[in-house]
């Protein structure tokens, strides 16, 4: 147990919350400390079961000067879902999924639910909406950051489907947030991450998606440049039912692997799906084609375990136009690093139709997101960081903005990219109102106005 915490205080905390409380040495503690990428060693973990538990946990952390992490699915690339010596509010028990109005397609989700649970629960209704890519991604972290998934071009970001939420603030209040109630914090939590409180439940409008055509199309590696350019041009005018991602795997010093293009067509009409996907198939020599009809939930995959010691360095930027010249630059710069994985997500569509100031996610003119992941251990990648920075510098003239969910090492430039100046100013003013002491700072942090 943290030497600063009196066992009597922990005993009182256990008596005051309905959820379970864990400290180092307790049976089950170790199983709760690891994330997908990071490992923490918090002084206290609370498996909360109610808003009241969350409020008491926040108060306990403030009383004992403990940093607060909120864990939904534990997929934070930056490790924000855990900490060392602080308090973790584990939301995994808040995992209810309820269709509250089938005719209006209204669904209430607990923040601790994972996306495989959500897709399973909604499938009998023929409903879905943009989610994470993997089964164990948590609802909470994804919805407050954005949510760029396989239905993004047709139905927008996950947060674009949000109509209401419950938020526990730094002072323990439980607020209902929507366009009618507390609209300022409702605006802020749609893209502002965990800066404004712990969001414990969400009400969303799900979309009619009984089936998708999903899978990977692989192309001969020597045709990567040609296929990528053609793919970018096709996606610029492809029907919005089609969302697609190009995956350029590193060589690790060996022969180049095939280019993999993932496609997801939201709809049941096979003829329409093929009309959208076939132009991609015709771009080059197809060495494998795994596209098939399936329930949307089957498109989500389990998260892969990383090799021992690995902690990938992840960064992303948006572009308003994925041009042939930009594709050439991406591939040229990637070739300077044997262990750089590059992913290009074609988005746009419905995401672009939301007004730029409607949510705290302001990147509404983007057509694609480029993500560069330096695979390996921090120690092994240290000598490669200059080349990694050179990769991003070469892309910078064509890039604008960033997505908070795909960042591992948060630099000031990343915060500026996630929150452009006007958005940051508005968020900072709200931060001063709802969290003036910056209690919730383990995130892509917005400093309360006047404290910069």
What's the short story on this structure?
With 452 residues, the chain is α+β, with helices and mostly antiparallel strands. The chain is built from 13 helices and 19 strands. It folds into three domains: 7-90, 2-Layer Sandwich (Uridine Diphospho-n-acetylenolpyruvylglucosamine Reductase, domain 2); 97-209, Uridine Diphospho-n-acetylenolpyruvylglucosamine Reductase, domain 3 (2-Layer Sandwich); 212-416, Vanillyl-alcohol Oxidase, Chain A, domain 3 (3-Layer(aba) Sandwich), CATH 3.40.462.20.
List the keywords.
single chain; 452 residues; alpha+beta; Uridine Diphospho-n-acetylenolpyruvylglucosamine Reductase, domain 2; Uridine Diphospho-n-acetylenolpyruvylglucosamine Reductase, domain 3; Vanillyl-alcohol Oxidase, Chain A, domain 3; 3 domains; 19 strands; 22% strand; globular
Protein architecture, described:
- This protein has 13 helices and 19 strands.
- The protein folds into three domains: 84 residues, Uridine Diphospho-n-acetylenolpyruvylglucosamine Reductase, domain 2; 113 residues, Uridine Diphospho-n-acetylenolpyruvylglucosamine Reductase, domain 3 (2-Layer Sandwich); 205 residues, Vanillyl-alcohol Oxidase, Chain A, domain 3 (3-Layer(aba) Sandwich), CATH 3.40.462.
- Helix 7 packs antiparallel against helix 9.
- With 452 residues, the protein is α+β, with helices and mostly antiparallel strands.
